[in-house]
Records
---
Amino acid sequence: MDTMDDKSVHQFMATFITKDSRFAIPSTPYAINGSTDGLALNSLIKTLIAETFDDQQSDLNLEDTEFDFIINNKLLRVSVQEFVENEETLSVENELQIEFFAKWCPPKPHNSLLHDDWVSCVDCHHNWIISGCYDNSVHIWDLNSDGSHKIAIPAHLAPIKAVKWIVNESNDSSNDHMFVTTSHDELAIVWKWNSQSNQVEYLFSCRGHSRSVDCVDVNNDLIATGSYDQMLKIWSLADPKHELKDSEPSTSAQKKSKKNDGSERGDKNRIPVITLSGHKEAITGCVWMNKLSETSIANISTCSMDNTIRIWDIEVAENKQTLTSNKAFLAISYSSFNTCLITGSCDRHIRLWDPRTSSGSLVSRVYTSHQAWVSAIDWSKTNEYHFISGSYDNIVKQWDIRSANAPLFDLIGHEDKVLCVNWSSDKYMISGSADNHLKIFSNLDNKIIKS
């Protein structure tokens, strides 16, 4: 690597700040050389902390602590001078404010749960994992008992494409847990599982799609599904007005499914509350963008193989915004912390979108490290800066949005393409693959420091 000529190296004044009170130091400006990088700053911060806390430094375990540094809301990955020269809003005359924090510990392999076929989808709530498989089955696992298998449900007549727990916060301590599954068989089905008796009950089917239902998301008592038929449909959990009457004709795509014992089931069917059209190719992902309440109507975002993201206003049942790329989208996730979207595409790139931007590009940053299609993506539910991605390159990656040049960590272990990821738990990251395994990675060593 080229080094800077001594005459071109500048001196900077810098103030160091942290949100972690364990490492707080005086806000005194310090002179640092422009060639200083993260490694050198790490040594400096440790020295300053040791001087500040004196006899208490042994309690801080500084020997095993490494720090990361943020300038201008970006992680420092080069020398200070290189960083400043690449930032349009900074100059060598600026006094820098550098935020530091303890580095995120690498996730550790925790468990690997074997299925009989490809693991296509996964969701987690508290200590319960639900996974969908290409052998038409859905599985429930107990995280608290080291991943013990609770039940296998022959839920559909074709491969499972999406699963989602239906979370009722007012009844969160109950043993009854509802969830929804979708499939190549053109159905979404709502179920209830009792964790005490370990019995599952079929509730009703959502009928209306004419091709594979590939994605699902839940907001209070509304379910959103996206399909290869290019349609977004909204279903009501609570409103019986939308039940399909026995006298109404059903299409060939709406044949009755069967009970778990193979006998015919007298299906309770629901029809959609809203059907939204606009995409020209398959919808591959859908996500509610805010919580539904008595005073607000939630928007929903969809991504598609037609290279577009559409944001829908559910109140008026219209497409309110369209975001365009040059490649097909395969996955989408929304963060309630920063109100941004992230997407995975066929061009191997991950994009961070800010739909609120009124000028310039809506793509805030592009993250490139995967070597194949980015098939799955999910925000952390406890950290506004972190997300994970899965790819056909067999790798799961953990990212910090402030570092576009490289991921924080590669989570390896899968032997075939990654089809799904989930970071709903504050303790575990979960991924499913065409190698028939559900991998669980632990991030228990990390403590979230909130501002």
---
Amino acid sequence: MQLEVPKWGDKPDLKLAISGTYSTGKSTTTEALAIATGIPRTHAKTSRELLVDLVPGKTVMELNAMELVKLGLRRYEERLVNEAGTGAFISDGGVFHEWVYFEARMRVGINPGMPWWFQGVKKTLGVVSKGFYQKYTNTLGEIQKDRAKRSYDAFVHLPVEFDMDRDGHRPVSEKFRRLSDELLLGALEETKIPYRIVGGPIPQRIEKIVEIFELPLVVPVKEAIEEAERRVAADASDLQRNLAFMASRRQKSFGRRLAYAFRY
């Protein structure tokens, strides 16, 4: 049985998180909801944005396990800082998303978007060290789930409904995406944080979320969505230009590419 969710009239400092895996429309939904309601949106930088400083010269698909740990911890740190205030907010994601993605990689393969033979090689190379990373992942999950219980009043989960964006940069497979969705829902059940699953087109989503939590409307939904789509498209365009620039400067020898690829 789903727990009762708080209402805006009773909880004007409502801390609401929107969960969902890759290509579920999470960024557009949270941006539009924030614009429509006037409630601030919080988020962590994308993995691709953070890599420029964290692991210069590598793409997400080239990361080994320890570099993924570094990336996950930095994103977790960003979420904690951005959600540290006392007022209401709408979180794009949630603090246990980093655990979900690392756990999914432990199950599917450390580089889930790569060919099966490559994943087989990585699995063999990781025989000795995988146990350590799994223990780390389990501990991370405990910490982040506990943090989520103290950070959010409720969740809205966006199910997998749309095709995955094949932009060439997402280090995931459809199997990975579906597993991530299952892990997110499992974490919500385990933490007993009130949540609702809301699907459908984005206008329908926004109206449903507003109705569920009785949120204020300060901008018409249609206008909020148009502005959100403009902002998300602009951010994506800036990111693509940055990725192209970094790629042009990343001249690696064949030997160096192999060394990147075959480190667990």
